[in-house]
Design goal:
This protein has helices spanning 2-13, 77-89, 118-124, 139-147, 160-166; strands spanning 17-20, 23-26, 28-32, 35-38, 41-42, 47-48, 51-55, 58-59, 67-68, 74-75, 94-101, 107-113, 116-117, 129-130. By secondary structure, it is an alpha+beta fold. It has one domain (2-166): OB fold (Dihydrolipoamide Acetyltransferase, E2P) (Beta Barrel).
Amino acid sequence: MFRLLSVIVALSMGAPVETIGADLEGKACVESGDTIYIGGRRGSRSCQGGVGVRLRGIDAPELGQTCKHPNGRYFLCGRYAASFLLERLMREKVRCEGNTKNPEGLVLATCYVGKTDLNMLMVDQGWAVADPSTSLKYMSYQESAKGGKRGVWGMEFIHPAEWRRKNPR
């Protein structure tokens, strides 16, 4: 019954979503560097419909967040993080594994394109930081990105959680 209801909801949203227990599979709409919507479609400013997924164990810069290059120029690193993730998902089926939700109602999950762990990729390439409050799995990848000055680690930046505290919505 639940599977049938999931299929009906997915079809009414216009994009396929496959629910396997708490796991999800389908095309994804990128909301930010750490949030996607399986089965969602891009609206004018955000994803519409689908099932919201927060990538477990990582925290990406917010869309409006800026970072400072060593040359002194600022750039929207939060938007770049989202673009980096979008490039990895375009025209690909995403599989997300998770069975809990965060306080905002998003499924906390590890997501994959093929065998590539997207959560790990975002941290390893420096476009997200590890979030030890939800998982310690990505801490070594963060150290590698930090040592290699990849992504935000090659710039001046404020940790995303701190940036959110200083810039409430």
